[in-house]
Amino acid sequence: MKRLADVLLSPAPGAEIVMGNTALVRAMIEAGVRVVTSYPGSPTPEIADAIRALPAARCPFHFEFSTNEKVATEVAFGASVNGHLACVFFKSVGLNVAADTFVQLGLMNLIGGLVVVLGDDPGANSSQNEQDNRHLARLACLPVFEPASPTEAFTMFKTAAALARSERTAVVLRLTTHVCHAKEKVAFGAWETPAFDDTPRFSPENGPYIPITSLVFPMKRQALERLQRIAASPDHQTWTTLSSHGNKRRGIITAGLPYLSLLEVFHEAREWPDILKLGMVHPLPRSPILDFLRSHEEVKVLEELDDFLELQIKAVAFEHRLPVRIIGKTCFDDWVGEYTPDQTARVLARAWPDLLPPLPPPPAVTVPARPAQLCPGCGHRSAFQAIKAALPPAAITVADIGCHTLGFLPPYGIGQVLLCMGHSCGTAAGLSLFQKDRPVVAFLGDSTFFHAGLPGIINALYNHHDFTLIVMENGTTAMTGHQDHPGSGRNFREPVDAIPIRRVLEGLGVKTILETDTYQQARLTDLVRQALATPGFKVVIARHPCMLKFTREQARQGKPRLPAVHLSDACDQQKVCISGFACPTFQFTPEGRVTVQQDLCIGDGSCRQVCPRQAIQPTKKGGA
Amino acid sequence: MPSATFDIFMIGVGGQGIGLLSEALLRAFDHAGTPVRGVDTHGLAQRGGTVTSHLRVGPDTYSPLVREGHADLVIALERHEAMRGLQTHLRAGGQLVYYDAEWQPLPVRLQKQPRLTPEELAAEAERRKARLHRVFVDTLPDPRMQNVAVMAWLVRNRVLPGLEPNHLESALRDLLDGPVLTRNLELFATLLR
Q: Per DSSP, what are the bridge partners of residue A301?
């Protein structure tokens, strides 16, 4: 087996097929990064998977999953003002959590340099929106690189790190989902184990570091001057690529993954507009853009999500009174979704209907949709089964982020409103005001409890709100790939004392804390009824370890899977297991009878208690 | 229409091992000296949802994504997903190879929509002039080896341009270790015979 650690730590240059996220780790090593922090979130967790492949003793940097993105950014900031080159990475909406810290970075003199790797998610593949974080980087006065491929992610990270060091600032590397996850052969450079000078270099003299009232102004001025310097730097030209096809009429300005989509669509284009591809999207390279606008009659700004480049490019044209026709977003469809090659073709056809041959309509799919599902044996399924039995029909259920969000799907229908990580207790508090008729139940996962859940809980206690919180505790950050969290008993590298959720709640003064394993469905139903009957803020901890993590660990240890359950002759086809409990294991035979899909069942038996006929039976090894 | 680029679209259900299948094919093409790039589904959909993987083989590719209706080959690990891949990505006259597992999607299990039969899939393939091949091995020791069964079928029938069995074996050796590697290589060799 090829060892990723050998690839990532090889002193010699080489080339390897890797995804963008993996290439970034080699770039961190080559750049001499000393501190890396994160909170897991798609599309970035595979960066940490690659870091995990490095043995602790050989990993040249400190890595941690911090409690949330804000703390992760602060740890990286602290390391940077102490002289270390630092990096923090997280997903698109993670920047909202980190924003209070992030927007200050431009004001600071980061003597070690800092690279902020953002995993934006056009197409909302794994996110609650498809926000365009270029806006926040601009708000924070920080430069932004936008790579299109794993190779560019690798080279631009190193460029960003060098710029961050020389300008003593934070530099944003904005990736998108299919840059993070794209795989190609990337050529790595040479690398020598560096002799790090770990002298703590923090000094207020390097600052100022205290932005209060009028002290802010010189710091803001410094941030603006830095941006201006970067915009005017000759390096900026080298990050911009002009592909001239001798087309005086039409040109396209683009950046990031849409650039590759554009080249793909060019295979069938009737003419090839010239292309100006930006490597840095903030601050803009004004001079090549100006040249490009001057030398074309029409310029299409091809950018995913918002009109970030478009507005600035139009401003440039306006200031210089250029006659060029600039085509930006033409309709709402241009604002929505990822610019895949197919979407790019549609966007271009709206700008220039004659550019491409007629496009086929989007494919019609007749096969049933397949949304994500709770896994076979998932403790959340037992929890939803039990909780549903306890809830009156008028109850309002507030979802939060995690695998348990999937409870909103039929047949459970639990979780009717969702904003973001940790919103549930705040939202539930608002929903509980001025009414007693509709009990309000909030859900929260255990990783989210620590990430952003606690302020809402404390608020509920402090302001005497009346609702029930159900903590869906599975012992891991399951949806993003089973990362540890403060309650799981491990950090990224080693076992640690777990911070028990129950004791945290007790310490805060929660009077009613009920808990059970979710496989004890009848008991959980009773506890939820009990909680609903108790006034004030109360918590039910619904606990069961993540069974996907458990079965994977068993398989890794070479332990055989438990045999699938089977249906005995007592089964009279009431179909509760399939229509109510809905474990994916249960499906229909061609004759319409319920059967057990042997590939899927993990033999956990959590389904057995839902059968009114006790027809679901464990199977002994070697058959029924 | 023969072209220098060979586009492969893989589709299945989270948990079926599309990741290993695509990584093995990617590395096998690399072992064969063919330029290749691709991208997989990660994140939420891996929990029992539809997962896809794109593989673009040849020197003249840019995007990691296969365009709708442009795939030369669709590989599916489940029957309903085979239909989805056929309808979204296979080009007219392309080839659809599917492992005939049936993991019914939620709307089927909730009796909102009917299950898909092999006959309906075959009819749709014929309507689209696609070459359809069903793979099914009733003696598999472990359902997680369905992907290897498909790999063996593809190599034995020379569906993957320029790939020899040793390229895929080298790829599996890159990716797996110990008894898991041994079992998969044994199955691969058995199915090649």
A: A253
